Amino acid sequence: MRLTVAQALVRFLGNQWSERDGVERRLVAGCSGIFGHGNVAGIGQALAEQGAGTADVLPYYPARNEQAMVHTAVGYARTRNRLSTFACTTSVGPGATNLVTGAALATINRIPVLLLPGDVFATRVASPVLQELEDPRSYDVTVNDTLRPVSRFFDRINRPEQLPSALLAAMRVLTDPAETGAVTLALPQDVQAEAYDWPEELFRRRVWHVARPVPEPAALARALELLRRSRRPLVVAGGGVIYSEASEQLAAFATRHGVPVAETQAGKGAVPYDHPCSVGAVGHTGTAAANALARDADLVIGVGTRYTDFTTASRTLFGSAAFLNVNVAAFDAAKHSGETLVADAREALRALDPGDWTADPGWTTGAAELTHDWQEQVSLLTTGDALTQPVVLGMLNEVARPADVVVNAAGSMPGDLHRLWRAGGPGTYHVEYGYSCMGYEIAGGLGVKLAAPEREVFVLVGDGSYLMMAQEIVTAVQEGVKLVVVLVDNHGFASIGGLSESVGGRRLGTASRMRGATGELDGAFLPVDLAANAASLGADVLRADGPESLRVALTNARESARTTVVHVETVPGPGPDTTAWWDVPVAEVSDLPEARRARLVYERAKRAQRPYL
Ligand SMILES: Cc1ncc(C[n+]2csc(CCOP(=O)(O)OP(=O)(O)O)c2C)c(N)n1
Ligand SMILES: [Mg+2]
Known about the structure:
Strands 5-4-6-7-9-8 form a 6-stranded parallel β-sheet, sandwiched between helices. Strands 14-13-12-15-16-17 form a 6-stranded parallel β-sheet, with helices on both faces. With 613 residues, it is an alpha/beta fold. It has 24 helices and 23 strands. It starts with a strand and ends in a 7-residue tail after the last helix. Helices cover 37% and strands 18% of the residues. The chain is globular. The chain binds thiamine diphosphate and magnesium ion.
């Protein structure tokens, strides 16, 4: 079949399916793109040429920023539990390098996305071409090489013959739960348009079976042995529980054996907040209940978690516990010198049957009491007359229905959400905290809504994140994809301001203020109207200035069929206390007394850090 490389690629992608538990879905559900001279005549032409109604349809979605395209693909793929994703096509040069942040985010969060950056001419006949790097040491290096360390598979298609094997490898990595992340095929612009005689078999319908590896018997026996010796076990549920759809098995295991379940950011919602075994968020942004249990546990059963520093409180949280790590990736299972159970979370929890073993009854009831006390604190913090951030979140939690989705990524909200949000179940809590990337919120939320159009999607975004990347509101409006964007405006980087103060940094550069008479950034608030900005992008805008008007705005926004931005200014106020540390180094020497004080506090805290050997 004589086609260009780009036409062959598009035709191939339209015929790829994933399968798990007997259900087949399109592996690549669509292609986001921004066209330039590096892809318009290649992938752009191929996307335009595909006929509607044939097997090889890859719907095209425009975007406004290449980084945002990857966020949208991640939002989509995470919502589809990694069984389906998007491709992203870009031009050469800046269009391609704009992918790097998104690729890192995808790989760190272990979410499959397919990146198709254009690349400079393979023939090099007219080098240097527009936007070419020109590395004097090697003509083989292009700006796209920046995507190598953040991709789980990277290849450059310099000849048409290379395409088939690269495509097959790309699909394998996308659908391998242990290896998945960003997959990049760099496509030199001349090669994209080059014709070749392809074998018909390349375009046959292919089904990629997403594995559910079962535990090795000897490893299972060791895990059961460890479990039976434990009196005070604690499950730490990560994103793997959700991607594996193991919530029911986890709840059954926890209930049967009296094991409390704590959740990471990616794992939150693995069990609903009101499940009797749930003790909520764990780690630096954890609940007082979960963190108290983490300190006393004798066994931490990590299920599908990467154990980031937020989860382990920079390795200070889990007192003297041993680790049993259930993970589909051996790399994660091996962390903290744990006993490893390399397996799919659902299969592992099914197999992990220690008979009538239970945790100490006092441990189980104590966990429930701590959680009850914590929930009372949540109710106190999230209600009131002043629009503090916890009150805003509490109001949204009340207006949202249990199946609605909340999306967030960076700033002070992820911590508050982790502790305070009452998640209705898996897939309802979508906080990107592997990369905590400002600007993920709206673009990622768009992907969530594309993947789950039946759900209401509430995107929470801070003023800083909004300013960094709000432009996909335009795409949401264009596509008729309805989002509710709650823009929480506190005039600056509240999170980093607080952190700065705590490390002796005097909040430098964290408030949205004019340069004042003294030459410092301490003047009046910036004359910036973000609500007007959102309106100018085509969204409906509602402004809320008190708890009642916020309730009405959120309710109306939820009812509306159009993308609606609810703008709310928050006031400083009480929030949940941090009950676990986070390692942020403090200046070892300083002329500022507050920095010297902070250093002393830091050195004391650091002594609690364990190597977990
Ligand atoms: C792309 C990116 N740049 C910088 C940071 C570091 N950072 C984390 S939170 C934050 C401020 C976020 O401000 P805003 O969205 O207003 O949230 P707030 O802290 O006020 O809650 C910054 C700069 C980041 N996470 N991502
Ligand atoms: Mg802010």
